[in-house]
Fold this protein.
Amino acid sequence: MFEADSISLQTHLVSESRMYTMLGPQALKKASQYTSIQAAKIINPALKRYISLSISKHGYLTPACKAVMEEIRNLADLL
């Protein structure tokens, strides 16, 4: 068992050994371009993914910030 913040390190260890890792869809897509790792969806137990957006308390919400917040809400509904 190991913990690494580096996705490239995780995928390297998995591809070179008999280890497992958990990757999100984007990380898996990138990793599969460079390694021969295989993937399986975890069904049970169900896993939650959290999305967060930080904004300054000292500023105001610009139209761009509001649009990004709305897009995150829309994308979260798809997950």
Q: What stands out?
A: Helices lie at 7-16, 25-34, 63-78. The longest helix spans residues 63-78.
